[in-house]
Amino acid sequence: MHATLQPVLVLLAAAVLVVVVFRHLKQPPLLGYLIVGVAIGPHAFGWIRESTQVRDLAEIGVVFLMFSIGLEFSLPKLRTMRRTVLGLGSAQVLSTLLIVMGVSMLLGLPWQAALVLGGALAMSSTAILAKLLAERYELNTEHGRQIIGILLFQDIAVVPLLIIIPALAAPAGDLAISVGWALIKAAAVLAVLLFFGQRVMRALFHVVARAKSPELFVLNVLLVTLGVAYVTELAGLSLALGAFVAGVLLSETEYRHQVEESIKPFRDVLLGLFFVSVGMLLDFRVVIENAWVSVILVALVAAKTFLIFGIAKCFGAATSVAMRTGLALGACGEFGFVLLSHANHARLISPEHLQPVLAAMVLSMLATPFIIQRSEAIVRRFNANEWIMRAMQIHNIAVQSMSTTAHVVICGYGRSGQNLARFLEQEKVPFIALDVDIERIREAAAAGEHVVFGDAARREMLSAAGLTRARAGGHLLGYALGAARAGAGA
Question: Domain 387-489 is in which class?
């Protein structure tokens, strides 16, 4: 009991400390988990030796992460973002995979190991980037949508890679048969789950929901997530793949949002343990003694950044948007470690090749927040037009708001912004609407509505829109309450 409890207590104490410190520093706690893993792992202080229990907890963290991604995966969303996800995302993953694969084979690695390395290095961190973009209010900017679209395709691309990695370990003569059999088996299992699974799950959740017990609902979510993951593992596939399928099955049901809230605490805690286990892989002696780590780190981040910048430009993105997208996605991500972990278990990559790559990947993830923080300065430094465009935006907004007082500033002209604008027009309340979506602005202009191009997440844009002269919140609240009463009376 003591041997089991001691590492758990160390992990919990380190997790509490790191979350407090990194919240205070306004940095993603996931980076703190990486640092903790490095410090307490077998290659540093050695407080925790790599054990089966730690690996199992970390794998369950990945299971819940894949389940969450499955919940976010929906065909309507994919259709809406198809150009970014299927076009830009597929171009990024395939080009990165092929380039890394080519370089690796030139350096003498077998093509199986080169394929896994290419897939792993093509990934970026969904967990870190989504958090950073949300904190910087950049999720709905043009570069934010491109980043999320590419990340979504990367998450989808993990699924076929998880299926074929175990088959790649087969002898050369049986490789084609092994890969083909793995794909057929995966297709059969997924077809059965997708065809029958949603009906069974919907019926099960109907029964559980009628009990009106939060505890029972959470237990059912855990049962479904781990149960489907277990079924796919029995079929010779991975736990992570099963969890993704379970999330997809629930994504189109009415229970999706409640399920997402129910698993959030488990997902965040266990995902933190996954990042700790990743940090435990980093051996600083390898970083210091092996010059390849620095070469791989610099070459990887620089190559991915320039590659994504070029692809984004080919898809019509503005220079500043392409630069921000490339800078954000240049580092590696958590699914790269998942793929390398499976490859390590299948003995596709030797330790002398694996360790420098793992070290470079961990260091690139540690650098991600600092790259994001400096991205604005980098874009302005290398893109002189950014200053001119920003100045023109501020000027246009200031011209519109110059003679306006007691107005309302509408941040974003989506469905909610449009409804609010129509309501304010009926009440004869002046307003200025800001949006960064060019197509939306054109549609508004064609409809006779006036929307100004500007990023409402930036303080200078809000100042130009006359935020200090805007109508007090109490007036707007009164109008909103009046509209609610009118709707209720109707």
Answer: alpha beta
